[in-house]
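Notes to self after the Tuesday call (sharing in case useful).
The group wants a holo model before anyone commits to mutagenesis around the pocket. I volunteered. Ligand is flavin-adenine dinucleotide. Logging inputs and output together so the record is complete.
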Amino acid sequence: MGQRIDQRRIRHYNGESRPQGPVLYWVHREFRFRDNWALIHAQAEALRRQVPLAVVFCLVPEFLGATLRQFDFLLKGLEASAPRLQQANIPLILRSGDPATEMNRLCTQLSPSLVVTDFDPLRIKRQWLQSLLKGQTAPVQEVDSRNIVPVWIASPKREYMARTIRPKIHRLLPEFLTPFPEYSAHPHVWDRQPASLSFAELHQALKVDTTVAPVDWLQAGEEGALQTLTTFLSTRLDNYDQRNDPNREVCSNLSPYLHFGMTSAQRILLEIDKRGLSGENTESFIEELVVRRELSDNFCFYSADYDQVSAFPEWAQRTLEEHSADPRPYLYSLEEFDQAATHQPLWNAAQRQLVQTGTMHGYMRMYWAKKILEWTPNPTEAMRIAIYLNDRYALDGRESNGYTGIAWSMGGVHDRGWAKRPVFGSIRYMNANGARRKFDVPRYIRTWASKQQASFFA
Ligand SMILES: Cc1cc2nc3c(=O)[nH]c(=O)nc-3n(C[C@H](O)[C@H](O)[C@H](O)COP(=O)(O)OP(=O)(O)OC[C@H]3O[C@@H](n4cnc5c(N)ncnc54)[C@H](O)[C@@H]3O)c2cc1C
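Result:
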Protein backbone atom coordinates (compact mmCIF):
# COMPACT_ATOMS: atom_id res chain seq x y z
CA MET A 1 0.00 0.00 0.00
CA GLY A 2 1.01 3.65 0.15
CA GLN A 3 0.11 4.21 -3.49
CA ARG A 4 -2.15 7.04 -4.56
CA ILE A 5 -5.44 5.68 -5.81
CA ASP A 6 -7.29 7.21 -8.76
CA GLN A 7 -8.49 10.48 -7.24
CA ARG A 8 -11.76 10.27 -9.19
CA ARG A 9 -12.85 7.51 -6.78
CA ILE A 10 -12.93 10.03 -3.91
CA ARG A 11 -15.44 12.68 -2.87
CA HIS A 12 -14.23 15.27 -0.36
CA TYR A 13 -16.25 16.80 2.50
CA ASN A 14 -15.33 19.28 5.29
CA GLY A 15 -12.48 21.46 4.12
CA GLU A 16 -10.31 21.81 7.20
CA SER A 17 -6.83 20.39 6.56
CA ARG A 18 -5.25 18.60 9.52
CA PRO A 19 -1.72 17.21 9.38
CA GLN A 20 -1.87 15.71 12.90
CA GLY A 21 -4.01 12.93 14.27
CA PRO A 22 -4.66 9.37 13.11
CA VAL A 23 -6.52 8.37 9.98
CA LEU A 24 -9.75 6.44 10.53
CA TYR A 25 -11.37 4.22 7.92
CA TRP A 26 -15.06 3.85 8.80
CA VAL A 27 -16.23 0.67 7.06
CA HIS A 28 -19.95 0.06 6.50
CA ARG A 29 -20.25 -1.42 2.99
CA GLU A 30 -16.96 -2.98 1.87
CA PHE A 31 -16.16 -5.59 4.50
CA ARG A 32 -12.81 -6.74 3.13
CA PHE A 33 -9.30 -5.77 4.03
CA ARG A 34 -7.65 -6.60 0.76
CA ASP A 35 -8.55 -5.18 -2.65
CA ASN A 36 -10.31 -2.30 -0.90
CA TRP A 37 -9.68 1.15 -2.42
CA ALA A 38 -10.93 2.97 0.70
CA LEU A 39 -8.46 1.15 2.97
CA ILE A 40 -5.65 1.53 0.44
CA HIS A 41 -6.36 5.26 0.29
CA ALA A 42 -6.65 5.57 4.08
CA GLN A 43 -3.26 3.93 4.51
CA ALA A 44 -1.62 6.08 1.83
CA GLU A 45 -2.89 9.18 3.66
CA ALA A 46 -1.71 7.87 7.04
CA LEU A 47 1.74 7.13 5.59
CA ARG A 48 1.94 10.58 4.04
CA ARG A 49 1.11 12.16 7.42
CA GLN A 50 3.21 9.59 9.33
CA VAL A 51 0.33 8.81 11.69
CA PRO A 52 -1.44 5.65 12.90
CA LEU A 53 -4.38 4.17 11.07
CA ALA A 54 -7.44 2.34 12.43
CA VAL A 55 -10.49 0.70 10.89
CA VAL A 56 -13.78 1.42 12.64
CA PHE A 57 -16.91 -0.70 12.40
CA CYS A 58 -20.07 0.30 14.22
CA LEU A 59 -22.78 -2.31 14.56
CA VAL A 60 -26.29 -0.93 14.18
CA PRO A 61 -28.31 -3.18 16.44
CA GLU A 62 -31.25 -2.89 14.01
CA PHE A 63 -30.83 -2.24 10.29
CA LEU A 64 -33.53 -2.06 7.60
CA GLY A 65 -35.27 -5.23 8.76
CA ALA A 66 -32.11 -7.36 8.69
CA THR A 67 -32.39 -10.55 10.75
CA LEU A 68 -29.91 -12.81 12.50
CA ARG A 69 -29.22 -14.47 9.13
CA GLN A 70 -27.58 -11.37 7.63
CA PHE A 71 -25.92 -10.11 10.84
CA ASP A 72 -24.39 -13.53 11.43
CA PHE A 73 -22.92 -13.59 7.92
CA LEU A 74 -21.55 -10.06 8.32
CA LEU A 75 -20.00 -10.59 11.76
CA LYS A 76 -18.50 -14.00 10.92
CA GLY A 77 -16.99 -12.58 7.75
CA LEU A 78 -15.59 -9.56 9.55
CA GLU A 79 -14.14 -11.67 12.34
CA ALA A 80 -12.46 -13.98 9.83
CA SER A 81 -10.77 -10.97 8.18
CA ALA A 82 -9.74 -9.23 11.41
CA PRO A 83 -6.35 -11.01 11.81
CA ARG A 84 -5.23 -9.55 8.49
CA LEU A 85 -5.52 -6.04 10.00
CA GLN A 86 -3.84 -7.09 13.21
CA GLN A 87 -0.85 -8.43 11.28
CA ALA A 88 -0.63 -5.06 9.53
CA ASN A 89 -0.60 -3.07 12.82
CA ILE A 90 -4.01 -1.60 12.02
CA PRO A 91 -6.42 -1.79 14.99
CA LEU A 92 -10.03 -2.71 14.31
CA ILE A 93 -12.27 -0.63 16.56
CA LEU A 94 -15.68 -2.23 17.10
CA ARG A 95 -18.56 -0.15 18.38
CA SER A 96 -22.30 -0.60 18.73
CA GLY A 97 -25.05 1.99 18.42
CA ASP A 98 -26.07 4.70 15.96
CA PRO A 99 -23.03 4.86 13.62
CA ALA A 100 -23.04 8.64 13.15
CA THR A 101 -23.24 9.24 16.91
CA GLU A 102 -20.51 6.71 17.59
CA MET A 103 -18.28 8.10 14.84
CA ASN A 104 -18.75 11.64 16.19
CA ARG A 105 -17.86 10.42 19.66
CA LEU A 106 -14.76 8.68 18.35
CA CYS A 107 -13.71 11.77 16.38
CA THR A 108 -14.00 13.92 19.52
CA GLN A 109 -11.90 11.39 21.41
CA LEU A 110 -9.19 10.74 18.80
CA SER A 111 -9.10 14.02 16.77
CA PRO A 112 -8.38 12.27 13.48
CA SER A 113 -6.63 14.13 10.70
CA LEU A 114 -8.88 12.36 8.20
CA VAL A 115 -11.90 10.06 8.11
CA VAL A 116 -12.20 7.82 5.04
CA THR A 117 -15.46 5.99 4.48
CA ASP A 118 -17.34 3.77 2.00
CA PHE A 119 -19.65 5.19 -0.61
CA ASP A 120 -23.19 3.79 -0.47
CA PRO A 121 -26.23 5.37 -2.19
CA LEU A 122 -28.82 4.05 0.29
CA ARG A 123 -30.73 6.84 2.03
CA ILE A 124 -29.83 5.70 5.52
CA LYS A 125 -26.13 5.74 4.64
CA ARG A 126 -26.44 9.22 3.13
CA GLN A 127 -28.03 10.34 6.44
CA TRP A 128 -25.21 8.81 8.50
CA LEU A 129 -22.69 10.69 6.40
CA GLN A 130 -24.59 13.99 6.76
CA SER A 131 -24.77 13.55 10.55
CA LEU A 132 -21.04 12.83 10.71
CA LEU A 133 -20.29 15.95 8.68
CA LYS A 134 -22.49 18.11 10.91
CA GLY A 135 -21.08 16.66 14.13
CA GLN A 136 -17.35 17.27 13.67
CA THR A 137 -14.86 19.16 11.51
CA ALA A 138 -12.24 16.63 10.40
CA PRO A 139 -12.06 16.17 6.63
CA VAL A 140 -14.13 13.23 5.44
CA GLN A 141 -13.48 11.40 2.19
CA GLU A 142 -15.92 8.99 0.63
CA VAL A 143 -14.47 6.31 -1.66
CA ASP A 144 -16.36 4.23 -4.21
CA SER A 145 -14.77 0.79 -3.82
CA ARG A 146 -17.88 -1.07 -4.97
CA ASN A 147 -18.04 -0.08 -8.60
CA ILE A 148 -15.12 -0.57 -10.95
CA VAL A 149 -15.99 2.76 -12.58
CA PRO A 150 -16.99 5.14 -9.75
CA VAL A 151 -20.71 5.81 -9.97
CA TRP A 152 -20.31 9.59 -10.33
CA ILE A 153 -17.73 9.14 -13.11
CA ALA A 154 -19.63 6.48 -15.08
CA SER A 155 -22.49 8.89 -15.69
CA PRO A 156 -23.66 12.31 -14.43
CA LYS A 157 -27.32 11.26 -14.54
CA ARG A 158 -29.76 8.44 -14.03
CA GLU A 159 -29.39 6.13 -17.01
CA TYR A 160 -32.40 4.83 -18.94
CA MET A 161 -31.25 1.27 -19.38
CA ALA A 162 -28.30 -1.08 -19.74
CA ARG A 163 -27.96 -0.04 -23.38
CA THR A 164 -27.24 3.58 -22.39
CA ILE A 165 -24.74 2.95 -19.58
CA ARG A 166 -22.91 0.00 -21.23
CA PRO A 167 -20.75 2.02 -23.66
CA LYS A 168 -19.87 4.52 -20.93
CA ILE A 169 -18.68 1.79 -18.58
CA HIS A 170 -16.80 -0.14 -21.24
CA ARG A 171 -15.06 3.05 -22.41
CA LEU A 172 -13.83 3.78 -18.86
CA LEU A 173 -13.03 0.22 -17.76
CA PRO A 174 -9.42 0.21 -19.04
CA GLU A 175 -8.70 3.33 -16.94
CA PHE A 176 -10.12 1.89 -13.72
CA LEU A 177 -9.47 -1.84 -14.03
CA THR A 178 -6.02 -1.56 -12.49
CA PRO A 179 -4.34 -4.12 -10.21
CA PHE A 180 -4.68 -3.59 -6.45
CA PRO A 181 -1.48 -2.61 -4.62
CA GLU A 182 0.01 -5.21 -2.28
CA TYR A 183 -0.79 -5.05 1.41
CA SER A 184 1.93 -3.78 3.77
CA ALA A 185 2.31 -3.51 7.55
CA HIS A 186 1.62 -0.01 8.87
CA PRO A 187 4.82 1.48 10.40
CA HIS A 188 3.15 4.12 12.63
CA VAL A 189 1.71 2.29 15.62
CA TRP A 190 -0.61 3.60 18.34
CA ASP A 191 0.92 4.45 21.75
CA ARG A 192 -2.32 3.28 23.30
CA GLN A 193 -4.87 1.46 21.19
CA PRO A 194 -8.39 2.89 21.21
CA ALA A 195 -10.95 0.86 23.17
CA SER A 196 -12.96 -1.67 21.22
CA LEU A 197 -15.77 -4.12 21.88
CA SER A 198 -15.08 -7.81 21.23
CA PHE A 199 -16.94 -9.83 18.60
CA ALA A 200 -18.74 -11.69 21.41
CA GLU A 201 -19.96 -8.34 22.75
CA LEU A 202 -21.17 -7.34 19.29
CA HIS A 203 -23.20 -10.54 19.02
CA GLN A 204 -24.71 -9.78 22.43
CA ALA A 205 -25.58 -6.23 21.35
CA LEU A 206 -27.77 -7.46 18.49
CA LYS A 207 -31.47 -6.74 18.87
CA VAL A 208 -32.68 -8.55 15.79
CA ASP A 209 -35.25 -11.12 14.80
CA THR A 210 -33.62 -14.48 15.49
CA THR A 211 -36.34 -16.56 13.83
CA VAL A 212 -34.61 -16.26 10.45
CA ALA A 213 -31.70 -18.60 10.99
CA PRO A 214 -28.15 -18.17 9.68
CA VAL A 215 -27.25 -20.33 6.68
CA ASP A 216 -24.52 -22.94 6.66
CA TRP A 217 -24.11 -23.66 2.94
CA LEU A 218 -21.62 -20.88 2.32
CA GLN A 219 -18.73 -19.66 4.39
CA ALA A 220 -18.78 -15.97 5.29
CA GLY A 221 -15.77 -13.76 4.64
CA GLU A 222 -13.02 -13.10 2.16
CA GLU A 223 -11.73 -16.68 2.07
CA GLY A 224 -15.24 -18.02 1.47
CA ALA A 225 -15.67 -15.50 -1.36
CA LEU A 226 -12.41 -16.56 -2.97
CA GLN A 227 -13.31 -20.24 -2.79
CA THR A 228 -16.77 -19.59 -4.23
CA LEU A 229 -15.20 -17.60 -7.06
CA THR A 230 -12.60 -20.29 -7.78
CA THR A 231 -15.27 -23.02 -7.93
CA PHE A 232 -17.44 -20.89 -10.18
CA LEU A 233 -14.67 -20.01 -12.63
CA SER A 234 -13.34 -23.54 -12.86
CA THR A 235 -16.56 -25.57 -12.87
CA ARG A 236 -19.62 -23.48 -13.72
CA LEU A 237 -18.80 -20.50 -15.90
CA ASP A 238 -18.63 -22.80 -18.96
CA ASN A 239 -22.37 -23.45 -18.52
CA TYR A 240 -23.40 -19.87 -17.73
CA ASP A 241 -25.60 -19.86 -20.86
CA GLN A 242 -27.93 -22.13 -18.84
CA ARG A 243 -28.33 -19.44 -16.17
CA ASN A 244 -32.08 -19.02 -16.73
CA ASP A 245 -32.74 -22.59 -15.61
CA PRO A 246 -33.38 -22.52 -11.84
CA ASN A 247 -32.74 -26.27 -11.63
CA ARG A 248 -29.14 -25.86 -12.73
CA GLU A 249 -26.34 -24.72 -10.47
CA VAL A 250 -24.48 -22.55 -12.97
CA CYS A 251 -24.65 -19.07 -11.44
CA SER A 252 -21.83 -17.86 -9.22
CA ASN A 253 -23.61 -17.48 -5.82
CA LEU A 254 -21.31 -14.50 -5.32
CA SER A 255 -24.04 -11.97 -4.55
CA PRO A 256 -23.92 -12.33 -0.72
CA TYR A 257 -20.16 -11.72 -0.84
CA LEU A 258 -20.49 -8.82 -3.26
CA HIS A 259 -23.29 -7.34 -1.19
CA PHE A 260 -21.18 -7.31 1.99
CA GLY A 261 -18.11 -6.28 0.02
CA MET A 262 -16.29 -9.50 1.02
CA THR A 263 -15.04 -9.53 -2.53
CA SER A 264 -15.12 -6.94 -5.29
CA ALA A 265 -16.15 -7.00 -8.93
CA GLN A 266 -12.70 -5.63 -9.75
CA ARG A 267 -10.96 -8.63 -8.13
CA ILE A 268 -13.29 -10.99 -10.01
CA LEU A 269 -12.47 -9.34 -13.34
CA LEU A 270 -8.75 -9.44 -12.58
CA GLU A 271 -9.05 -13.18 -11.82
CA ILE A 272 -10.90 -13.72 -15.10
CA ASP A 273 -8.08 -11.88 -16.92
CA LYS A 274 -5.39 -13.83 -15.08
CA ARG A 275 -6.95 -17.13 -16.17
CA GLY A 276 -7.30 -15.89 -19.73
CA LEU A 277 -11.04 -16.63 -19.73
CA SER A 278 -13.04 -15.27 -22.65
CA GLY A 279 -15.95 -16.16 -24.90
CA GLU A 280 -19.71 -15.74 -24.74
CA ASN A 281 -20.24 -17.13 -21.24
CA THR A 282 -17.54 -14.89 -19.81
CA GLU A 283 -18.98 -11.87 -21.63
CA SER A 284 -22.48 -12.62 -20.28
CA PHE A 285 -21.16 -12.95 -16.75
CA ILE A 286 -19.26 -9.64 -17.03
CA GLU A 287 -22.43 -7.99 -18.34
CA GLU A 288 -24.25 -9.00 -15.11
CA LEU A 289 -21.36 -8.37 -12.74
CA VAL A 290 -20.33 -5.02 -14.13
CA VAL A 291 -22.95 -3.40 -16.40
CA ARG A 292 -26.12 -4.52 -14.58
CA ARG A 293 -24.60 -4.19 -11.15
CA GLU A 294 -23.17 -0.72 -11.74
CA LEU A 295 -26.44 0.32 -13.38
CA SER A 296 -28.18 -0.55 -10.09
CA ASP A 297 -25.94 1.78 -8.12
CA ASN A 298 -26.54 4.43 -10.79
CA PHE A 299 -30.29 4.06 -10.25
CA CYS A 300 -30.13 4.34 -6.47
CA PHE A 301 -27.54 7.14 -6.54
CA TYR A 302 -29.62 9.35 -8.84
CA SER A 303 -33.10 8.38 -7.50
CA ALA A 304 -33.40 8.96 -3.77
CA ASP A 305 -36.86 7.31 -3.94
CA TYR A 306 -35.38 4.08 -5.38
CA ASP A 307 -37.75 1.94 -3.26
CA GLN A 308 -40.94 3.76 -4.20
CA VAL A 309 -43.35 3.84 -7.13
CA SER A 310 -42.41 7.49 -7.77
CA ALA A 311 -39.01 6.24 -9.04
CA PHE A 312 -40.65 4.31 -11.89
CA PRO A 313 -40.36 5.97 -15.30
CA GLU A 314 -43.26 8.20 -16.20
CA TRP A 315 -44.68 5.79 -18.85
CA ALA A 316 -44.67 2.95 -16.29
CA GLN A 317 -46.44 4.97 -13.59
CA ARG A 318 -49.05 6.00 -16.18
CA THR A 319 -49.73 2.49 -17.46
CA LEU A 320 -50.00 1.06 -13.93
CA GLU A 321 -52.38 3.86 -12.99
CA GLU A 322 -54.54 3.14 -16.06
CA HIS A 323 -54.83 -0.47 -14.89
CA SER A 324 -55.23 0.29 -11.19
CA ALA A 325 -58.90 -0.71 -11.19
CA ASP A 326 -58.36 -4.01 -13.06
CA PRO A 327 -59.62 -6.95 -11.04
CA ARG A 328 -56.74 -8.92 -9.54
CA PRO A 329 -56.98 -12.68 -10.18
CA TYR A 330 -55.89 -13.35 -6.56
CA LEU A 331 -55.16 -11.13 -3.59
CA TYR A 332 -52.76 -12.13 -0.83
CA SER A 333 -51.62 -10.49 2.36
CA LEU A 334 -47.99 -10.09 3.42
CA GLU A 335 -48.41 -13.04 5.79
CA GLU A 336 -49.75 -15.31 3.04
CA PHE A 337 -46.84 -14.44 0.77
CA ASP A 338 -44.42 -14.89 3.66
CA GLN A 339 -45.84 -18.34 4.44
CA ALA A 340 -45.65 -19.39 0.76
CA ALA A 341 -49.41 -19.91 0.95
CA THR A 342 -50.52 -18.76 -2.51
CA HIS A 343 -52.52 -20.97 -4.90
CA GLN A 344 -49.43 -21.44 -7.10
CA PRO A 345 -46.86 -24.16 -6.34
CA LEU A 346 -44.21 -22.48 -8.53
CA TRP A 347 -44.37 -19.16 -6.65
CA ASN A 348 -44.49 -20.96 -3.31
CA ALA A 349 -41.41 -22.99 -4.25
CA ALA A 350 -39.46 -19.79 -5.01
CA GLN A 351 -40.51 -18.23 -1.71
CA ARG A 352 -39.44 -21.39 0.13
CA GLN A 353 -36.07 -21.37 -1.61
CA LEU A 354 -35.59 -17.80 -0.36
CA VAL A 355 -36.70 -18.56 3.19
CA GLN A 356 -34.70 -21.76 3.53
CA THR A 357 -31.44 -20.77 1.85
CA GLY A 358 -31.24 -16.96 1.94
CA THR A 359 -31.17 -16.79 -1.83
CA MET A 360 -33.47 -17.28 -4.81
CA HIS A 361 -32.50 -18.12 -8.35
CA GLY A 362 -32.23 -14.96 -10.50
CA TYR A 363 -34.89 -16.02 -13.02
CA MET A 364 -37.33 -16.85 -10.22
CA ARG A 365 -36.65 -13.50 -8.56
CA MET A 366 -38.17 -11.74 -11.58
CA TYR A 367 -41.12 -14.10 -11.68
CA TRP A 368 -41.63 -13.88 -7.91
CA ALA A 369 -41.75 -10.06 -7.93
CA LYS A 370 -44.06 -9.83 -10.95
CA LYS A 371 -46.57 -12.17 -9.32
CA ILE A 372 -46.54 -10.07 -6.16
CA LEU A 373 -47.49 -7.11 -8.38
CA GLU A 374 -50.31 -9.18 -9.93
CA TRP A 375 -51.67 -10.46 -6.61
CA THR A 376 -51.74 -7.27 -4.52
CA PRO A 377 -54.18 -4.32 -4.63
CA ASN A 378 -51.66 -1.78 -5.99
CA PRO A 379 -47.98 -1.30 -6.93
CA THR A 380 -47.17 0.57 -3.69
CA GLU A 381 -48.29 -2.40 -1.63
CA ALA A 382 -46.52 -4.79 -4.01
CA MET A 383 -43.22 -2.90 -3.61
CA ARG A 384 -43.60 -2.87 0.15
CA ILE A 385 -44.16 -6.63 0.33
CA ALA A 386 -41.40 -7.57 -2.11
CA ILE A 387 -38.83 -5.34 -0.38
CA TYR A 388 -39.86 -6.62 3.04
CA LEU A 389 -39.49 -10.28 2.04
CA ASN A 390 -36.30 -9.78 0.03
CA ASP A 391 -34.65 -7.81 2.81
CA ARG A 392 -35.83 -10.17 5.51
CA TYR A 393 -34.65 -13.44 3.99
CA ALA A 394 -32.07 -12.75 1.28
CA LEU A 395 -28.43 -12.67 2.32
CA ASP A 396 -27.83 -10.11 -0.40
CA GLY A 397 -30.89 -7.92 0.45
CA ARG A 398 -30.99 -4.20 1.36
CA GLU A 399 -28.92 -3.06 -1.56
CA SER A 400 -29.02 -1.33 -4.93
CA ASN A 401 -29.40 -4.58 -6.90
CA GLY A 402 -32.46 -5.56 -4.88
CA TYR A 403 -34.26 -2.22 -5.07
CA THR A 404 -33.46 -1.98 -8.77
CA GLY A 405 -34.45 -5.59 -9.50
CA ILE A 406 -37.81 -5.06 -7.81
CA ALA A 407 -38.34 -1.72 -9.61
CA TRP A 408 -37.43 -3.42 -12.91
CA SER A 409 -39.92 -6.23 -12.31
CA MET A 410 -42.81 -4.06 -11.16
CA GLY A 411 -42.15 -0.63 -12.58
CA GLY A 412 -40.36 -0.94 -15.93
CA VAL A 413 -37.13 0.61 -14.61
CA HIS A 414 -34.41 0.00 -17.25
CA ASP A 415 -37.00 -1.79 -19.39
CA ARG A 416 -39.29 -0.80 -22.26
CA GLY A 417 -43.04 -1.10 -22.71
CA TRP A 418 -44.53 -4.42 -23.85
CA ALA A 419 -47.95 -5.58 -25.12
CA LYS A 420 -50.70 -4.48 -22.74
CA ARG A 421 -52.06 -6.89 -20.14
CA PRO A 422 -54.56 -6.57 -17.31
CA VAL A 423 -53.02 -5.22 -14.08
CA PHE A 424 -49.54 -4.86 -15.68
CA GLY A 425 -50.48 -2.45 -18.47
CA SER A 426 -47.33 -2.32 -20.60
CA ILE A 427 -44.98 -3.61 -17.88
CA ARG A 428 -43.31 -6.83 -19.06
CA TYR A 429 -45.41 -9.83 -18.07
CA MET A 430 -44.29 -13.30 -16.98
CA ASN A 431 -46.41 -16.36 -16.37
CA ALA A 432 -46.08 -20.03 -15.46
CA ASN A 433 -46.44 -21.16 -19.10
CA GLY A 434 -43.39 -19.10 -20.02
CA ALA A 435 -41.51 -20.70 -17.13
CA ARG A 436 -42.55 -24.19 -18.33
CA ARG A 437 -41.11 -23.45 -21.76
CA LYS A 438 -37.77 -22.49 -20.15
CA PHE A 439 -37.21 -25.21 -17.55
CA ASP A 440 -38.57 -28.27 -15.77
CA VAL A 441 -41.08 -26.53 -13.48
CA PRO A 442 -42.29 -29.69 -11.66
CA ARG A 443 -38.68 -30.51 -10.78
CA TYR A 444 -38.11 -27.05 -9.29
CA ILE A 445 -41.34 -27.41 -7.29
CA ARG A 446 -40.27 -30.83 -6.04
CA THR A 447 -36.86 -29.50 -5.01
CA TRP A 448 -38.40 -26.80 -2.85
CA ALA A 449 -41.48 -28.74 -1.79
CA SER A 450 -40.72 -28.38 1.91
CA LYS A 451 -38.13 -28.71 4.64
CA GLN A 452 -34.43 -27.90 4.40
CA GLN A 453 -32.92 -28.28 0.94
CA ALA A 454 -29.41 -27.11 1.65
CA SER A 455 -28.02 -30.13 -0.23
CA PHE A 456 -29.13 -28.40 -3.44
CA PHE A 457 -25.99 -26.31 -3.10
CA ALA A 458 -23.62 -29.12 -2.20
C1 LIG B 1 -36.89 -8.98 -7.89
C2 LIG B 1 -35.40 -9.03 -7.86
C3 LIG B 1 -34.74 -8.88 -6.66
C4 LIG B 1 -33.34 -8.91 -6.62
N1 LIG B 1 -32.72 -8.74 -5.42
C5 LIG B 1 -31.37 -8.71 -5.35
C6 LIG B 1 -30.72 -8.44 -4.12
O1 LIG B 1 -31.36 -8.22 -3.10
N2 LIG B 1 -29.35 -8.42 -4.12
C7 LIG B 1 -28.62 -8.68 -5.25
O2 LIG B 1 -27.39 -8.67 -5.19
N3 LIG B 1 -29.22 -8.92 -6.43
C8 LIG B 1 -30.57 -8.94 -6.52
N4 LIG B 1 -31.17 -9.17 -7.72
C9 LIG B 1 -30.36 -9.31 -8.94
C10 LIG B 1 -29.96 -10.77 -9.30
O3 LIG B 1 -31.09 -11.57 -9.34
C11 LIG B 1 -28.94 -11.34 -8.31
O4 LIG B 1 -27.82 -10.48 -8.22
C12 LIG B 1 -28.40 -12.72 -8.75
O5 LIG B 1 -29.47 -13.61 -8.93
C13 LIG B 1 -27.44 -13.23 -7.67
O6 LIG B 1 -27.03 -14.55 -7.92
P1 LIG B 1 -25.55 -14.87 -8.39
O7 LIG B 1 -24.57 -14.15 -7.56
O8 LIG B 1 -25.43 -16.35 -8.48
O9 LIG B 1 -25.59 -14.20 -9.85
P2 LIG B 1 -24.67 -14.37 -11.13
O10 LIG B 1 -25.56 -14.66 -12.29
O11 LIG B 1 -23.55 -15.29 -10.90
O12 LIG B 1 -24.13 -12.86 -11.37
C14 LIG B 1 -22.92 -12.38 -10.80
C15 LIG B 1 -23.18 -11.08 -10.10
O13 LIG B 1 -23.67 -10.10 -11.01
C16 LIG B 1 -24.59 -9.24 -10.35
N5 LIG B 1 -25.91 -9.37 -10.99
C17 LIG B 1 -26.45 -10.45 -11.56
N6 LIG B 1 -27.67 -10.17 -12.05
C18 LIG B 1 -27.89 -8.87 -11.77
C19 LIG B 1 -28.98 -7.98 -12.01
N7 LIG B 1 -30.07 -8.36 -12.65
N8 LIG B 1 -28.88 -6.71 -11.57
C20 LIG B 1 -27.77 -6.26 -10.92
N9 LIG B 1 -26.70 -7.07 -10.67
C21 LIG B 1 -26.78 -8.35 -11.09
C22 LIG B 1 -24.69 -9.71 -8.91
O14 LIG B 1 -23.82 -8.95 -8.11
C23 LIG B 1 -24.23 -11.16 -9.01
O15 LIG B 1 -23.70 -11.66 -7.80
C24 LIG B 1 -32.59 -9.12 -7.80
C25 LIG B 1 -33.27 -9.27 -9.01
C26 LIG B 1 -34.64 -9.22 -9.03
C27 LIG B 1 -35.35 -9.39 -10.36
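Two things stood out.
The longest strand covers residues 53-59.
The chain has 19 helices and six strands.
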